[in-house]
């Protein structure tokens, strides 16, 4: 029988790209179909291979057979993540992540993945960004649209299903594909970081099988070697409670929003104070958090349980604080040598200027945690993720092909101002890496970075992820880089160093 998922070894173009004062030559296999029944044109894969490897040479000790396969994604805001290519990072002017990974000797698989607006491409509101739209308008428009039939084919769990299909495609072609399919390392930021964590946690879980079958994914394993996650916006069904555990009492919120202004998308600062109703949500959600944490049975490095009392105080809080202290300590030791990260840091985050830190004998001895939280400020009003009016990226992510958006917590559903439905329990679980850790074929190696000044989700969320992984025996490199906001790929040299260590050990 003909194998329509066979990798065509001759289907490449030779390319040379210059960026950031460097130049690389590589083979570009672009627009590969990674599943038999794609539901959206975005479901394509670009694969890049350093030319030196193809010529039988080695880069950084890697050959065509042994090079790790680095799988970065471009997912953000749970939007579709288009394929990417080596070039210049438009924000920094430097060589982009794919370029640097190739330069380092990796094979790079850069997939296009469905997201919450896939299927609605013809509708101008959805091009490229989350914008404020009237949900009723969209429902009408999606009913009527012709070419895309208004079917929202990218809703949960499409993004992880596509990622698994990509991993299966690579494995399906293990004899033909450049690189080592047993050294697949995913990488992503924010919603893309959550996706990387999902790929890492859920390897070979049967839960995704019907969806993989639907798109005609190869029948192969989909576990991976390692996951690199920058500020993963994950564990969504517990993220509202975690957010209020951290920020309750801070009623001012501030965020940059994207808005449609005529045909253009503009940035503006949205700020204000939570209403009494929102403050009441905050209090109620904060109360939910201790029972969630206590039910996890987390342990610190000495094996002591990490717990919270009913008011949200206790060893778990000390544990989060300890991660912040360590981050400050590291910055204290290295800040003069770290100009590169300094440029990306939040204004006013310089280590010497933080009066809530107690420094003794050159060591950060203590953090006034309440003052630290005040300093980083609240970004989102309560509930932070599952919005009571369904107007959040996450509610859209949990929509269906027919329903624009749904809730994913009992709390928001019960308090819904728009009579919103709630997504199926199993589906909500399938979008959360945490319950799969150690239950599915979870990646052995993890690198998690979450800026210490990131307020898109509670610091408790990445701490929980890293702690569960460590408790279950996985290798975890976790840190909260000082001063950094919600961002990713800011320390690629260190990331690649970590990859080289785990691949060569
Ligand atoms: C992203 C950021 C958020 O604050 C969020 O709620 C979801 C996704 C992101 O940047 O991907």
CATH class of the largest domain: Alpha Beta
Strands, count: 13
Hetero groups in this structure are: 3,4-dihydroxybenzoic acid
Trace the largest sheet across and list its strands.
1-2-3-5-4-6-7-12-13
Structural class by SSE content: alpha/beta
CATH topology of the largest domain: Rossmann fold
pLDDT under 50 segments (min length 5)? 124-148
Characterize the main sheet: 9 strands, mixed
The coarse silhouette is globular
Mean pLDDT: 92
From the coordinates shown, what is the CATH architecture of the largest domain?
A: 3-Layer(aba) Sandwich
Count every helix, treating DSSP H or I runs of 4 or more residues as helices: 16
Number of domains: 2
| Helical amount | 25-40%
For the record, give the distance between the C-alpha atoms at the N and C termini, rounded to a whole number.
Answer: 40 Å
Q: Helix and strand string, N-terminal first?
A: EEEHEHEHHEHHEHEEHHHEEHHHHEHEH
Name the beta content range: 15-25%
Could you state the CATH homologous superfamily of the largest domain? Alpha/Beta hydrolase fold, catalytic domain
Radius of gyration: 22 Å
Report on the structure:
This protein has 505 residues and is an alpha/beta fold. It has two domains: 2-231 and 488-504, Alpha/Beta hydrolase fold, catalytic domain (Rossmann fold, 3-Layer(aba) Sandwich), CATH 3.40.50; 237-427, Alpha/Beta hydrolase fold, catalytic domain (Rossmann fold). Helices cover 32% and strands 18% of the residues. A nine-stranded mixed β-sheet has the order 1-2-3-5-4-6-7-12-13, sandwiched between helices. The protein has a two-stranded antiparallel ribbon with strand order 8-9. Helix 7 packs across helix 8 (276-296). The longest helix is centred in the middle third of the chain and has 21 residues, at 276-296. 3,4-dihydroxybenzoic acid is lined by residues 76-78, 190-191, 233, 385, 393, 456.
């Amino acid at each position: 029988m003909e194998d329509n998922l066979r990798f065509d070894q001759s289907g490449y173009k030779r390319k040379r790209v210059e960026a950031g004062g460097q130049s690389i030559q590589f083979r570009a296999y672009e627009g590969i179909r990674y599943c038999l029944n794609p539901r959206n044109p975005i479901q394509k894969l670009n694969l890049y291979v350093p030319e030196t490897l193809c010529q039988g040479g080695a880069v950084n000790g890697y050959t065509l057979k042994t090079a790790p396969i680095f799988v970065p994604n471009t997912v953000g805001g749970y939007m579709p993540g288009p394929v990417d290519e080596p070039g210049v990072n438009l924000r920094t002017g430097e060589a982009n992540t794919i370029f640097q990974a190739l330069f380092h000797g990796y094979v790079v698989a850069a997939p296009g993945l469905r997201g919450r607006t896939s299927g609605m491409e013809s509708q101008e509101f959805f091009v490229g960004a989350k914008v404020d739209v009237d949900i009723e308008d969209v429902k009408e428009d999606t009913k009527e649209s012709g070419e895309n039939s208004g079917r929202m084919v990218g809703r949960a769990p499409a993004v992880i299903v596509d990622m698994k299909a990509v991993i299966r495609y690579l494995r399906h072609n293990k004899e033909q594909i450049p690189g080592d399919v047993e050294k697949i390392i995913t990488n992503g930021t924010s919603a893309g970081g959550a996706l990387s964590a999902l790929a890492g946690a859920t390897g070979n879980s049967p839960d995704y099988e019907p969806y993989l079958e639907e798109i005609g994914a190869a029948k192969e394993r989909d576990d991976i070697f390692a996951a690199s996650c920058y500020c993963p916006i994950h564990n969504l069904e517990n993220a509202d409670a975690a957010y209020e555990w951290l920020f309750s009492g801070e009623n001012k919120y501030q965020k940059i929003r994207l808005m449609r202004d005529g045909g253009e998308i503009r940035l503006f600062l949205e700020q204000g104070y939570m209403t009494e109703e929102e403050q009441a949500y905050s209090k109620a959600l904060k109360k939910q958090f201790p029972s969630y944490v206590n039910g996890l049975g987390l342990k610190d490095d000495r094996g002591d349980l990490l717990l919270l009392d009913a008011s949200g105080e206790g060893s778990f809080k000390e544990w989060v604080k300890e991660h912040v202290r360590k981050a400050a300590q590291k910055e204290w030791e290295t800040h003069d040598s770290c100009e590169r990260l300094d440029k990306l840091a939040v204004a006013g985050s310089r280590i010497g200027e933080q009066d809530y830190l107690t420094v003794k004998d050159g060591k950060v001895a203590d953090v006034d945690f309440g003052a630290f939280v005040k300093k980083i400020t609240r970004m989102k009003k309560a509930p932070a993720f599952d919005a009571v009016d369904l107007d959040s990226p996450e509610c859209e992510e949990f929509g269906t092909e027919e329903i624009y958006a749904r809730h994913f917590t009992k709390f928001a559903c019960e308090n819904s101002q728009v009579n919103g439905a709630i997504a199926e329990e199993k589906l909500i679980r399938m979008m959360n890496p945490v319950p799969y850790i150690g239950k599915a074929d979870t990646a052995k190696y993890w690198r998690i970075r979450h800026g210490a000044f990131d307020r898109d989700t509670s610091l408790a969320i990445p701490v929980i992820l890293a702690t569960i992984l460590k408790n279950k025996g996985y290798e975890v490199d976790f840190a909260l880089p000082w001063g950094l906001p919600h961002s990713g790929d800011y320390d690629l040299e260190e990331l690649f160093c970590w990859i080289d260590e785990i691949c060569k050990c």
